[in-house]
Give the backbone structure.
Amino acid sequence: MKKISILIAAFMILSCGCTNISGSVPVTPETVTAGTSETSAKPVTEEAVEAVIYIDEDKIESEEEPFRAEPEKPAEPAAVNIVCAGDNLIHTPIYRIAKEITGGEGYNFAPAYEHLGTLISDADLAILNQETIISDDFEPDTYPTFCTPTEMARDMIALGFDAFSISNNHVLDKGEAGLKSTLNFWRENYPDNPVYGAYLSEEDMNNIRTLDVNGIKFAFLGYMDHTNGIGLMPDSECRITYLSNEERIEQQVRKASEIADCVIVSVHFGIEVSNIVCEQQYEMSQKLADWGADIIIGTQPHTVQTMEYLDTADGRKAFVFYCLGNLISTMDVPASMAEMLGEITVTKDPADGKITLSNAKAVPLVDHFDRSYSYVGVYPLDQYTPAMAEVHAISGVSYDYILGIFHDNIPEEYLDEPYRSIIYGNEETDSAGGTQ
């Protein structure tokens, strides 16, 4: 049908070009002419007419202007906002309250963390140092050999935590049996949540935990300074790595950097109940960064310590939180009541796959429990008041004392509002370090 239409159109075009529309001159191959009048018309050969009539429609279509798609927009950089928390250290009063809430049927730890709101769940990736083993194979236990009911894992995941470091000095509090119990519990119940820092075997240890978030692949490693004098038997298949084994640590960090975009290392090191970063922390953090670590999360001292970017041997920028303090506990040390969350953003360039770190921040927290221990909870600093500090169970804790700890250990550049104004707005604060 299309070829017939072309034929008719061709005749009409030629007819209109050689005579008037009255059709007084018949149109034939002999009389078809070009031009605007009969006197100036020139005969058109039969071959020319045939050429017009039998133009191949496929050829016509193939010579049309090709479709030009809009150029693709460059891919947007991938970004992940990370939140990390310190020691989740569960003492007897916390167990007791969690059990009372349920009427004695299990445990509910969630109310102790309710004032955190969405600080954890708003993050793309949230990491917790679970200081105590989690198992129902042992009775709940407190210092010095902790064990926490498995409802804690449920409540921490509900709060928004994704990955869990167990590289700390309490990981062997119930010996090898306790370690196996907690690792098997996590594996059987929460297989999609990386749990790292202690392992069931050599093979398990070499299977570096990873997690893909927003197009960025993260690897997780964890190491500890000691395990309170409790060790694994020489014939044990379980594996933990102490900071003294630098050869193994370097090998693992370098391997992690080959398989992931961003390497996160949780390290349990430093002097307990001290806000001062010791030489071991500085030296090990720099080594980890040079070997390939991108973010270093420090715990153990149970107090807040400073943080900073590190220049690495290969020209990258790494970041270290030397110590986040606790997330929650009922320790009887005033300095341990000041805690913090660490925040940092990881961005991946789609062109070259390289990552950059930015927006490193600290969110100051206060661990609060009154003198009757009827409630234990963790509060962001902007929700904590001088009146609450006055009834704190630990003697020596005051609102100004807590502000002083934050002032002396968190650089102003790592604080967002309203925390910057609360902590640095009054330079006459009577701080723990004597700032006036």
User: Anything to note?
Assistant: The longest helix spans residues 2-18. The chain has two domains: 2-62, 78-424. The CA atoms of residues 40 and 348 lie 74 Å apart.
